[in-house]
Design a protein that fits this description.
By secondary structure, the protein is α+β, with helices and mostly antiparallel strands. The chain has helices at residues 9-35, 54-102, 118-167, 173-202, 212-229, 247-263, 324-334; strands spanning 208-211, 233-238, 242-245, 271-279, 282-289, 338-343, 349-356. α4 (173-202) runs parallel beside α7 and α5 (212-229) runs parallel beside α6.
């Protein structure tokens, strides 16, 4: 934004210091004038012919007062300029760091030393903001790179299939079409997941009263054939649990959680439990499953986009793009909730979603 040039903060502070000192000096001289000279007799012969009269004192006092006022003004200007420079030095460091951040360098930190005051609190807050901003930029860059890679893979496979079909016209057409359809479906699913993730990140959706218990039952009913196919017991427990938000996004959140719990389970005989309950002004949704033991250091990374984990990679038709829990985290944050992941001692994962409740 273009602004007209004005006085610098250092010059304003200098003028303020000098002006304050000059006013204080003038008040002091006025006090001397009022409470001292007024009691000196205005007699041409002075006091008993010995002490000076008021006329002589005024002639002596006035030049000295003028010199003192001039000295106070000069001292105020010089001292104010120096003091203002020392006071505003930390602000210069913050300005330089902000200018470097504006030029794209987010790794620079102020790291101001000394005891805590207003400027050091500002510097520490700015450093924390830069650290968070650098983390978000790096995360978005990784997300863009991973998304490009994930989208490029089905497109490259499609091109390879088309090249093979062109070079070998006698190849089984039905098999070719089926493979091409599977690749295309994967690309569409990935694109829809990316769009849903972007929509939930923006948080621009209409809110309505939603019962999480009904959402959980709908998601379980949709995924029941998948659970039966894998011989996994799917249970939904709990009572009415109301919250405010987007029914579509919350359904996608619960569906992702239940599908992950089914897919990342033991080969047969596993269980998935979906539980909803209201705890005061908080609505709680908990999804837990059986499965292989998960390393504690792996669990916090599962919500990162395109992060599948070495113990959770699937090679079947439900491999996914690694966006399931990332979408869950985004939807939870968009609804002002919290998401907790914890490995179960016997194996598997326990996911707890806490959302603001409504009457």
């Amino acid at each position: 934004m273009h602004r007209r040039p004005g006085l610098s903060a250092r010059l304003k502070l200098t003028l303020s210091y000098a002006g304050f000192l000059a006013v204080a000096g003038a008040l002091l001289l006025a006090v001397v004038w009022v409470f001292l000279l007024r009691y000196v007799p205005d007699n041409p012969k002075g006091l008993l012919g010995i002490a000076p009269n008021r006329y002589l004192l005024v002639r002596i006092f006035a030049p000295a007062a003028a010199v003192a006022m001039l000295g106070l003004l000069v001292f105020g200007l010089v001292g104010g300029w120096i003091l203002a420079g020392r006071m505003l030095a930390p602000l210069t460091q913050v300005t330089d760091a902000a200018r470097m951040a504006g030029d794209g360098s987010l790794s620079h930190r102020i790291r101001m030393t000394g005891r805590r005051d207003e400027f050091r609190e500002l510097a520490d807050t700015f450093d924390a903001m830069l650290e968070q901003l650098e983390s978000h930029v790096a995360e978005h860059q990784r997300f863009a790179a991973n998304a490009s890679h994930e989208l490029r893979t089905p497109l490259a496979i499609s091109r390879t299939l088309l090249d093979v079909a062109r070079e070998d016209p006698g190849r089984d057409r039905e098999e070719f079409v089926e493979r091409l359809r599977a690749v295309n479906t994967r690309a569409i699913d990935l694109t829809e997941a990316l769009l849903l993730l972007s929509r939930s990140d923006r948080g621009n959706f209409a809110r309505e009263s939603v019962d999480l218990s009904l959402i959980a039952e709908e998601a379980a009913e949709t995924l029941l054939p998948l659970a039966e196919q894998r011989r996994i017991t799917l249970d939904v427990t709990g009572g009415p649990t109301r919250t405010s938000g987007s029914a579509e996004l919350l359904l996608r959140m619960v569906t992702n959680l239940v599908q992950n719990a089914i897919v990342h389970n033991i080969p047969a005989g596993g269980t998935v439990v979906v539980h909803t309950e209201a705890r005061g002004d908080t609505s709680v949704l908990r999804v837990e499953n059986t499965g292989c033991p998960l390393p504690a250091e792996l669990v916090p990374t599962l919500t990162e986009p395109f992060r599948r984990g070495t113990e959770r990679v699937r090679t079947d038709e439900h491999a996914g793009a690694g966006l399931g829990l990332a979408i869950v985290r985004s939807v939870v944050h968009a609804h002002d909730g919290t998401l907790g992941l914890a490995p179960r001692p016997a194996g598997g994962l326990r996911v707890t979603v806490r959302l603001p409740g409504t009457p």
